[in-house]
Amino acid sequence: MLALRPNCECCDRNLPPESPDARICTFECTFCADCVETRLGGACPNCGGNFSPRPIRPAALLAKYPASTERVFKPR
User: Fold this and answer.
1) Where exactly are the structural domains of the chain?
2) Distance (Å, rounded) from C-alpha 8 to C-alpha 71?
3) Residues whose CB is less than 8 angstroms from the CB of residue 72 and which lie 6 or more positions away in sequence, other chains included
4) What's the fold here for domain 1-68?
5) pTM to 2 decimals?
6) Amino acid 63: pLDDT
């Protein structure tokens, strides 16, 4: 199950579970769409992979399967 990390690893922008701006790589590294496009050139700085929009977990399931609260911040 996806962790749904709460922030962009690059700029620390909040990315709540319902955010359409969250992008993830195959290892669930999480970035905002702006950083992916303007700072990272579409490639994950951790693994070199590409990004996909992070799926949005239905609100009814967030209570049973909550999003992660662990923030990862690695300014580039």
Assistant:
1) 1-68
2) 8
3) 5, 7, 9, 29, 30
4) Herpes Virus-1 (3.30.40)
5) 0.93
6) 93
* 57: Cβ contacts below 8 Å, ≥ 6 apart: 2, 4, 17, 65, 67
With CA atoms as reference, report the closest residue to 75 among 27, 40, 24: 40
Task: Note the pLDDT tens digit of each residue in 3-56.
Answer: 999 999 999 999 999 999 999 999 999 999 999 999 999 999 999 999 999 999
Q: Is the pLDDT of residue 75 over 90?
A: no
For the chain, give me the number of helices (H) and strands (E)? Answer: 2, 3
Contact 44/25 with Cβ under 8 angstroms? yes
Both tokens of residue 26? 């195959």
Question: Where are any strands of DSSP class E within the chain?
Answer: 22-24, 30-32, 52-53
